[in-house]
Amino acid sequence: LTPTGSTSTKVELRGNVLLLECIAAGLPTPVIRWIKEGGELPANRTFFENFKKTLKIVDVSEADSGNYKCIARNTLGSVHHVISVTVKAAPYWITEPRNLVLSPGEDGTLICRANGNPKPSISWLANGVPI
């Protein structure tokens, strides 16, 4: 089984294509099966290539992080490999701040919600000066 050993790791960036490869040898030729431990493979974004040797997930998000197991099985036995996947993300907007026009003495609220992995810090500045 390639990769060798029982576990390996993979880091991918949010929005990219995640490719995991599992190549098994045996006679009779093993059948490969992929599972996500503790979850489901995303139904509309998951594709298999090369007779299921390659698992392809398009437009990955942080929710796609986790352990993916490839199992190779034939009539004589089975072997498996677990790939621990971490999806990293540059900061992105959940709620982007919008322009606010206020009259003197009027109150207003600016909302700024961002996410990423690692989690971004948020700073507020007025005319380039930290508040």
Q: How would you sum up this structure, described in words?
A:
- The protein has 131 residues and is mainly beta.
- The protein folds into two domains: 84 residues, Immunoglobulin-like (Sandwich); 40 residues, no CATH class.
- It is 0% helix and 47% strand.
- It has no helices and ten strands.
- Strands 1, 3, 6, 7 and 8 form a five-stranded mixed beta sheet that branches. Strands 2-5-4 form a three-stranded antiparallel beta sheet, with no helix packed on it.
- β6 and β7 form a beta hairpin.
- The chain is rod-shaped and about 80 Å long.
- 12% of the residues are buried.
- The model has no long low-confidence stretch (mean pLDDT 94).
- It comes from Chloropsis cyanopogon.
- InterPro entries: Ig-like_dom (IPR007110), Ig-like_dom_sf (IPR036179), Ig-like_fold (IPR013783), Ig_I-set (IPR013098), Ig_sub (IPR003599), Ig_sub2 (IPR003598), Neural/epithelial_adhesion (IPR051170).
- It is found in: Cell membrane.
- This is NRCAM protein.
